[in-house]
Amino acid sequence: MEGIRLVRVVKIDGDEGLLESIDGLYRRVWNQSIKERLEKHMKYDGFRGYIMKSDDDEIIGFSYGYISRSGQYYHDLLANELGPIKYEKWLEDCFEFVELAVHPNHRNQGYGTILIHELLKEVTNKTTVLTTQVNNSSARNLYQRLGWLVVKEPFVPSKNDSPYVIMGKDL
C-alpha cells in the first residue's frame, strides 16, 4: 500500500498550533503570511474553514471563507468593480470563498476538489465568489471544471496587484 495516503478533513478552529501550521503552508505556497488575516476572518459571520491532514498529521491543504457583507474590505472592492446588476446577482446573498491552498507536493490528486466541496456543502447562501490570478491556469481550470463561471476579467484590486479574475457559482 505504499504511496497511498489516508487523509482527513478537519474544521479550522482557533488552536494556535493549527494556525501556525496553516501559516507555514501558506508561506510555502505564496511566500507570505496569512495568520493575521485568517484570525481576523475567523470573526466574520458565517466563517467556515477546513484543513486536510495526512495520516502523519501533515497539513496537505486548507480552504476557508465567510459570508460576504457590505463594509468588508474585499466585498466593497468587488461591489465597486461589479456594478449594481452583477452585485445583485453575485454579492447580495454570497459566501466569499477566500482561500484554497494545497501543498505543492500534493497537487493534482483531488485534494483541492475535496476541500472546496467540504467548504461549500452546507453553505446556505445563493452564490459564492472567489478571485484568482488571471494567469493561474491550474486554479482556473479546477474552478471551471467544478462549475464556476467568469464574472469579470480582469479585476485589479489595487494599483500594485497583478490582474485577477472574479469567478462565481450558484449554490
TrEMBL record:
<feature type="domain" description="N-acetyltransferase">
    <location>
        <begin position="5"/>
        <end position="171"/>
    </location>
</feature>
<keyword id="KW-0808">Transferase</keyword>
<dbReference type="InterPro" id="IPR016059">
    <property type="entry name" value="DNA_ligase_ATP-dep_CS"/>
</dbReference>
<dbReference type="InterPro" id="IPR016181">
    <property type="entry name" value="Acyl_CoA_acyltransferase"/>
</dbReference>
<dbReference type="GO" id="GO:0016747">
    <property type="term" value="F:acyltransferase activity, transferring groups other than amino-acyl groups"/>
</dbReference>
<dbReference type="InterPro" id="IPR000182">
    <property type="entry name" value="GNAT_dom"/>
</dbReference>
<dbReference type="GO" id="GO:0003909">
    <property type="term" value="F:DNA ligase activity"/>
</dbReference>
<protein>
    <submittedName>
        <fullName>GNAT family N-acetyltransferase</fullName>
    </submittedName>
</protein>
<dbReference type="Pfam" id="PF00583">
    <property type="entry name" value="Acetyltransf_1"/>
</dbReference>
